[in-house]
């Protein structure tokens, strides 16, 4: 499978590194970007640095679109010579299938994905949705490519990608906010900043590892560490009484609504 990347930024870099680490031959990968210096690091890996987007996609089985939302329409409408069998994988946030279809030849197989920032460290979570033109083997190709930067999950309705955006796409920031405030709280309780940060980081890491065990859900884990009348219960009671569960639902709903608005703002004008 030969793979062309349009856009040689952070996400493309992580995907290319992940693919090479998981056994893809660098010569099977081509990458295009208007800034020549962006391409040098890829050439050094043995990846083919294409002179233009058109030449990158020429012999590709799969084209990964990894540019910013603002330039997506221009990039796709200027691509010439796309063949009907070439799979387009868009990782562009906020550009829906309606727009991608408007900018691409009719009946082009398209997979739309929503990765998240931990993909930059190979620990991402990506939601994927395919249009009707995508074959089983092309879905397998998309799974393979996005698995290079973490876990993947397919959704059966495109609207569910807005929920994925709200949950895992924006999710890292929710945990960062909690961590940020735990660090501040530790300092308010008298710990120095460095120690407060270390305690928070390692606690988040350990809790995430425990929560990855699929045999015990997070609610049970929470109950297991909450002794009646103890310190954890004192903190959790306050969070629950202050309405944290409802706030989380409202926050994710706000993110989902914003994802829908962005699709209109950045999308094809029809
Ligand atoms: N980073 C994340 O955590 C994350 C998470 C989810 C989704 N995404 C999506 O992934 C996409 C890429 O994100 P990123 O963080 O990798 O962005 P990025 O680092 O800005 O990469 C985009 C690259 O595309 C290049 N580019 C601009 N115009 C182009 C053109 N006409 N043809 C070819 N390449 C062009 C840019 O070059 P210049 O720098 O010269 O403009 C840049 O190197 C975005 O749509 C974003 O929404 C990213």
Give a short summary of the structure.
With 270 residues, the protein is α/β, with parallel strands linked by helices.
The side-by-side strand order for the widest beta sheet comes to 3-2-1-4-5-6-7-8
Q: Counting H and I runs of at least 4 residues, what is the number of helices? A: 12
Chemical compounds bound to the protein: NADP nicotinamide-adenine-dinucleotide phosphate
Q: What gap, in angstroms, lies between the N and C termini?
A: 35 Å
How many separate domains? 2
The string of secondary-structure elements, in order, is EHEHEHEHEHEEHEHHHHHH
The helix content is 40-55%
Arithmetic mean pLDDT: 96
Sheet-strand content, in percent, reads 5-15%
Query: What Rg, in angstroms, do the CA atoms define?
Result: 21 Å
- For CATH, the homologous superfamily of the largest domain is named as NAD(P)-binding Rossmann-like Domain
Say what the CATH topology of the largest domain is.
Rossmann fold
Sheet/helix structural class: alpha/beta
| CATH class label of the largest domain | Alpha Beta
Which tags fit this structure?
270 residues; alpha/beta; Rossmann fold; ProC C-terminal domain-like fold; 2 domains; 8-stranded mixed beta sheet; 12 helices; 13% strand; elongated; binds NADP nicotinamide-adenine-dinucleotide phosphate
How would you characterize the overall build of this protein?
- The chain has 270 residues and is α/β, with parallel strands linked by helices.
- The chain folds into 2 domains: 160 residues, Rossmann fold (3-Layer(aba) Sandwich); 91 residues, ProC C-terminal domain-like (ProC C-terminal domain-like fold, Orthogonal Bundle), CATH 1.10.3730.
- It contains 12 helices and 8 strands.
- Strands 3-2-1-4-5-6-7-8 form an 8-stranded mixed β-sheet, sandwiched between helices.
- The longest helix is centred in the C-terminal third of the chain and has 23 residues.
- It is elongated, with a radius of gyration of 21 Å.
- The protein starts with a strand and ends with a helix.
- The relative contact order is 0.10.
- The model has no long low-confidence stretch (mean pLDDT 96).
- The site of NADP nicotinamide-adenine-dinucleotide phosphate has 25 residues, from helix 1 and helix 4.
């Amino acid at each position: 499978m030969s793979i062309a990347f349009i856009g040689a930024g952070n996400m493309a870099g992580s995907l290319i590194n992940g693919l090479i680490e998981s056994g893809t031959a660098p010569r099977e990968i081509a990458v295009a970007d208007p800034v020549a210096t962006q391409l040098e690091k890829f050439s050094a890996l043995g990846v083919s640095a294409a002179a233009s987007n058109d030449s990158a996609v020429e012999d590709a089985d799969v084209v990964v679109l990894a540019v910013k939302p603002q330039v997506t329409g221009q990039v796709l409408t200027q691509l010439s010579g796309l063949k009907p069998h070439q799979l387009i994988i868009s990782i562009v946030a906020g550009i829906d299938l309606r727009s991608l279809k408007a900018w691409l030849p009719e009946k082009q197989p398209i997979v739309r994905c929503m990765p998240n920032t931990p993909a930059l460290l190979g620990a991402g979570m990506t939601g994927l949705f395919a249009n009707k033109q995508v074959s089983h083997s092309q879905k397998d190709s998309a799974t393979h490519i996005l698995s290079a930067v973490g876990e993947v999950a397919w959704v059966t309705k495109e609207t569910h990608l807005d929920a994925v955006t709200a949950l895992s796409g924006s999710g890292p920031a929710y945990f960062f906010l909690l961590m940020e405030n735990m660090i501040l709280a530790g300092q308010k309780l008298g710990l120095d900043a460095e120690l407060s940060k270390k305690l928070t980081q390692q606690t988040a890491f350990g809790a995430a590892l425990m929560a990855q065990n699929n045999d015990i859900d997070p609610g049970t884990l929470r109950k297991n560490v909450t002794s009646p009348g103890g310190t954890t219960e004192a903190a959790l009671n306050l969070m629950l009484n202050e309405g944290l569960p409802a706030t989380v639902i409202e926050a994710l709903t706000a993110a989902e609504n914003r994802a829908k608005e962005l699709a209109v703002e950045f999308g094809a004008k029809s």
